[in-house]
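quick one before i forget lol
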Amino acid sequence: MLTSNHLSDEAKQTSNSRFFYGWAIVAIATLALLVSNGLSIGGIPVFYKFIQADLIASGAVSKENIQSVYGVAPAMTFLLAGFLAPVAGYLLQKLNARTMMIIGCVILGGGLGLYSQSTSALSVYASHALLGASLGFVGVLVNTVLVSNWFVRRRGLALGIVYTGTSFGGAVIPQISNPLIERYGWRTAMLLVSLLVWFILLPAVIVFVKNKPEDIGVLPDGDPTQAVTDENTSKAELAGMTLVQAIRTPQFWIFSICAALVFYALFVVSQQLNLYLQGPSIGFTSAQAAGVQSLLFILSIAGKFVYGFLADKFATSRVMLVSASTMFLSTLVFLYFDSTTVYLFAILFGLNYGGTFVLLQLLVADYFGTREYGKILGAVTVIETIGGALGTIITGRIADANGGDFAVAFLGLIVVTGLSFALTIVLNIFYRKHAVAV
């Protein structure tokens, strides 16, 4: 057992410099989401057009079915990540965050290596399955738990910083990948970006990640005492519904369907907008399409901060209403979509892309309390994932039915975001911001 006379070197340094090591954990967790989400979700679409060309040229996939393949492939990533979330929660009780993250890095790096050698639809599907599996180990859930171990009073700020990693990944990875693709080809480029996993993220996790502040003889938030924090935390943990109670309420299903519709739109835009922009309707080059995608994710970072700030000042459900309405308005741009209005869409949708990601997680606590927050969020995550997966599959099939053009398929986002806006109105009318003690 650690005592005041036997602090580790890390704890002594923290005490002397007044630097709390938890902020180093925040930095590593942010890096983990930048690399893992960037290489699995946000940044990987810049490769799609080049992979599609190879599959068609080799005869592995017909031109008439190629968009369907790239509707199913990202759907597999989302489904594996979503359905592994409860498994990851269970494994965290048996292992620890650091071990889970090391496993996730190996799966991610291996998945990218397999992807770089893909020559068929089956190998593409297998690669995307590995990318999705990696997110169960080194994605949002594990990093949320890790950072939550280190912070109590400042947990909201710490997690807000960490979640920007998902957006930075979507902004940074395309700008790294696209020049590499143009110079070396997509296969070599994918191997090169996989080095971010092997030589940056994995060593950082091995060397710097500590699972709990107690491991280095300090307390959460760097506090000298935790008595008051523990008392407040215990009270908070008793407030709200259990998972069984939550799923018996109409509110849970209205909220979950609304979230699934939101993720339908988020996943379609993050995975297939790049293909749309390089298609016959818009005709962007790969570099131009990558620029739009990076702009969208950069703005999503701002959206997380803006909507997070607003949620601290106003009822989260009301802020979600603003975000849902603006997201719906952004999709109306698809009625007049061209090389100019694409940037208007990127601005409006990008801000709300980041905003809804934060707001949906906050609303789970607002509507159902914190008693079994993790379990309820996990259930909602599975439903969100199904919505997102259906989005990419349906959009890909519609695009194939229209000769590979995504114009008609993306009009469906107007209906989807309109329905999510309507359900947000229902939630605001019939349910108040609360966490009822049960």
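fyi The chain has a mean pLDDT of 87.
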